[in-house]
Hints:
The structure holds two protein chains of two kinds.
Chain A: H1 2-20, H2 27-31, H3 33-37, H4 39-86, H5 88-110, H6 115-128, E1 130-137, E2 142-149, H7 152-164, E3 168-179, E4 184-193
Helix pairs in contact in A: 6-7
Chain B: H1 2-82, H2 84-93, H3 100-113, E1 117-125, E2 130-139, H4 144-152, E3 158-168, E4 171-181
Antiparallel strand pairs in B: 1-2, 2-4, 3-4
Amino acid sequence: MLKGKKAQKKEAEQFQESNLSPNLLTPIETKSFVMKARPKIARTTRNLVYVTAVVFIILSIINLVLQLRLNAGVKKRDDLIEDIRRNSYVEEQVKGISHATKLYKSTKAQNPDIAPHLKELVEILEETVTATNIRFVRKNNYYLVMATSDKATAYATMITKLLENEYIESMTLDLVDYKSQSNEYLAEFKVAIK
Amino acid sequence: MNEKINKQLNAYKRSLENKKIQSNAYSFLLVFTILFFDLFALQSMVDITVRRFDIHESLNNLVDDLVYKNDSTELLKQKLSDSQHYLAMLENAVPTDQRAEDYMVDLVQTAAKHGYKQDRLSRRDGIDNYAQLRASFQGSPDQMEPFIRSAEAQDRLSVINSINYSVVENTVNLELGIRIFYLDR
């Protein structure tokens, strides 16, 4: 009976304590405690959190997309570099062809063939005099000719024909010598080419 | 009993005061954390995003250039395979090494076709991408000009640099100074 009274008293105290304890507020009220205490700060904080979270999420998505595109781009770049490296011999070959073609063209342009004007010169010399020596050095661009003839007029004819020729620029008679023993005229002259 | 309730009410009030202080502190801490995050973390993230965007642009440009280069190389490769015949001719005309012996053989054969006999043949390396040859031949005067023409018409890129022609008893002594070119790599 005594125990029953004590137990009842204890129960009543616990009931009072539970009614008067800080837990008088319901859980929902506890959560919105800050809202009630500092509503402006709480609202601002909440908005800030939302904005921050949204910005962060947007930036994260952009970063993710960019990263994916970068990965794809790097892979494509590596594949292309590999392809180009595999075909690098083509570039070398084309460079070689380009050099060879340039060399061929420039050499041929700077050093035209001798045969056309040599042919003309030899024909004229054969018609008029007897050539004993013909020298040609490309950098001088003239022929040095030594010839003999038993007629002095042959040289006149030769000079006329040489100067009429399209390949010949000019002609310089360096020496004419008459050899009485053999009755012939020995001449030395330069024929400049155009 | 009332005294006890008052005590409990006072205790509860104190508890509420404490919670209010705590709440203010937490609010301040939260706001500070958010602002700190905004200032540094978001700023860093924006920087990273901008840098990544720039890298992405650069990478795109690089990939475009590489695609162009790769396409050009493929086109060249195709053209090269289509023109193998002409490439062989070009290789004969301007070889990648001297091949002076080949040219000498061709020249002697050409001389022989025109009745010219080889007398002397010597080679000297040029300072640039050519070798110099000196060759002497003997033959008839009437074949001199055709021989020179044939020598100049050879496949190999060559230049007759000097001629010394002399006739002794209807026999021509012909001395040629020739440069033969090659690709000096």
